[in-house]
Write a sequence for this structure.
């Protein structure tokens, strides 16, 4: 039977709707508009095969700072979205940490195990240079201090160089320690951690230094790691007890301090938690935002990860500004007050702490934008 005209009209309407939907999903400016990114720069350098994206989210507070991620993305759109998401995260992290930095990030698309790295990173350095200081880069997943040296050959807008600020984890751990004390103040009315039980997931750089600070204050430690040698060191140095990696979530304690992986606060783990506080150094602890709401519903105090683990950024900022280690630690110590401010906003506005942290960042950006609007 011949298809009626109506049906062909409706199928062509369906087709044009599908085309419009596809266009909307791939529209570059719509992606920027969604979270108000200021700028995206794309460079292809044919001789090296360099394909790089730099995203600048917000420069109200200062130049956009964020590392370079070298990753084999499955397609360009995935790379762009990752870059935009990470750049925005940097705006919030810097704003809450009280730094005069904006948020940016860059990604290089490709195999990060390649040996001949100089041409790629020189090309990236030129890309960074072309932005005239609006973006400053540093190390991230897939890049090393050696790669930063190649970038430095082309531009001064790079930090985390050999012999400069060095390993950020002691500063990060100090911030996490101060953040845990703020959580204890909020929860128990006292910052004292002597006799409190802290379960630490991950005995790597941050986990080790955090264990040291907690041990010195007299906290009882229960730790885990998939690397037995790292666990041994913490047991020996700080009299910690241990559990198997998948048992750490169910350990009865005052504090659970995730210092290993992201996504560990999820549907499976929240049900197991027997703690009052979740506060640790790991990035992206909530598998999804709704898990922050679930912690709130369970009455667990959560220190938002990007607030409590800003030490890496403070360290890099210290390098840019020529700060001493003492000044960097002092700045990181301010995390105590920042975390309490987050909890105050959460209580006043009846929202979970992860949302209150965003609110605090947005308020600082708006306030500084107002102060700086006149011509001087
Ligand atoms: P690291 O690699 O030195 O330590 C991570 C540790 O976690 C390793 O010892 C690893 O064996 C362990 N681990 C991995 N999977 C595990 C599992 N399933 N169970 C238990 N342990 C596991 O890294 P780091 O520098 O200590 O960073 C730790 C976390 O903090 C990461 O999420 C990182 O992104 C974040 N962070 C670090 C800094 C910093 O200054 N180093 C700054 C901000 C955020």
């Amino acid at each position: 039977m011949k298809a009626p005209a109506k049906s062909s009209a409706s199928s062509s309407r369906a087709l044009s709707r599908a085309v419009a939907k596809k266009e909307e999903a791939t529209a570059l400016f719509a992606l920027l508009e969604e979270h108000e990114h200021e700028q995206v720069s794309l460079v292809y350098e044919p001789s090296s095969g360099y394909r790089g994206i730099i995203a600048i989210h917000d420069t109200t507070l200062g130049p956009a700072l964020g590392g370079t991620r070298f990753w084999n993305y499955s397609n360009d759109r995935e790379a762009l979205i990752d870059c935009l998401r990470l750049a925005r995260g940097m705006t919030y992290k810097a704003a809450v940490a009280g730094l005069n930095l904006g948020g940016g990030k860059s990604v290089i698309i490709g195999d990060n195990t390649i040996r001949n790295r100089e041409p790629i990173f020189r090309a990236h350095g030129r890309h960074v240079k072309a932005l005239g200081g609006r973006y400053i880069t540093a190390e991230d997943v897939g890049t090393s201090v050696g790669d930063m040296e190649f970038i430095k050959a082309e531009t001064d807008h790079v930090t985390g160089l050999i012999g400069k600020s060095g390993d950020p984890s002691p500063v990060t751990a100090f911030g996490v320690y101060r953040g845990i004390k703020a959580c204890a103040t909020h929860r128990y009315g006292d910052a004292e951690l002597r006799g409190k039980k802290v379960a630490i997931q991950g005995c790597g750089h941050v986990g080790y230094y955090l264990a040291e600070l907690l041990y010195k204050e007299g906290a009882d430690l229960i730790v885990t790691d998939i690397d037995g040698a790292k666990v041994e060191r913490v047991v020996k140095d700080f009299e910690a007890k241990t559990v198997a990696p998948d048992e750490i979530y169910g350990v009865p304690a005052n504090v659970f301090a995730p210092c290993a992986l992201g996504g560990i606060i999820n549907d499976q783990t929240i049900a197991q938690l027997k703690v009052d506080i979740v506060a640790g150094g790991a990035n992206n602890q909530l598998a999804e935002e709704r898990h922050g709401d679930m912690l709130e519903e369970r009455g667990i105090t959560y220190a938002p990860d990007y607030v409590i683990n800003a030490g890496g950024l403070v360290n890099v900022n210290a390098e840019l500004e020529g700060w001493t280690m003492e000044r960097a630690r002092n700045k990181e110590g301010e995390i105590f007050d920042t975390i309490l401010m987050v909890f105050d906003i959460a209580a006043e506005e009846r929202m979970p702490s992860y949302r209150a942290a965003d609110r605090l960042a947005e308020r600082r950006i708006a306030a500084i934008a107002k102060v700086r609007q006149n011509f001087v």
In short: Residues 35-90+101-164 form a domain with the Rossmann fold fold (CATH 3.40.50.10860). The chain has two domains: 35-90+101-164, 169-363.
